[in-house]
Design brief:
single chain, mainly alpha, 80% helix
């Protein structure tokens, strides 16, 4: 909790100019900047979804291809299967790093949105986050990242288990 408070203080100190006194023009400018920044945060979320769909498609296609290859021959060639499994486990690792990176970027963007809202008449994103207990309670909100971070690992586990099964039990 202390780290989160310190992080919010750093955001505010970098975000706000100390020399600037708010007036009607700056409030209008702030609303414009706020709208653009929320749109930018939404675009990151959209790109994150596209990246997840891409990795899911690649892994689904590879899973089907590997299963067909492994089941189609009496004596599956071990080295091509090992090579394929290593490649796909590497793709899963890249997917996991991508999910983590998008999570960090989204966290920073929404923290800045919340800081901007402190100077606006209404703070809908901050209110929503408060209603969701800041993501701390699974009862009120389960973060998508908590779910999506496990998917690449599950695919990697299936690749490893499939290779072991084909190599030692066929």
């Amino acid at each position: 909790m202390a780290a989160e408070i310190e992080r919010e203080q750093v955001i505010r100190s970098v975000l706000w100019s100390l020399e600037h006194e708010p007036d009607d023009d700056s409030t209008s400018t702030l609303l414009t900047q706020y709208g653009l920044y929320v749109e930018s945060a939404e675009k990151v979320s959209h790109r994150r979804g596209i990246a997840n769909n891409f990795f899911l498609l690649v892994n689904s296609a590879a899973s089907v291809a590997l299963a067909a290859f492994g089941l189609s021959s009496e004596e599956a060639a071990l080295w091509p299967l090992l090579f394929s499994a290593v490649i796909m486990i590497s793709v899963c690792a890249l997917w996991g790093f991508t999910v983590h990176s998008y999570r960090q970027l989204n966290s920073a963007k929404w923290a800045i949105v919340n800081a901007i809202e402190e100077r606006l008449p209404a703070a809908p994103w901050a209110a929503e986050w408060q209603l969701l207990e800041r993501g701390q309670s699974r009862r009120s909100y389960r973060r998508l990242t908590a779910i999506e971070k496990w998917v690449p690992g599950l695919f990697a586990l299936v690749y490893a288990a499939g290779f072991v099964a084909l190599a030692f039990f066929s």
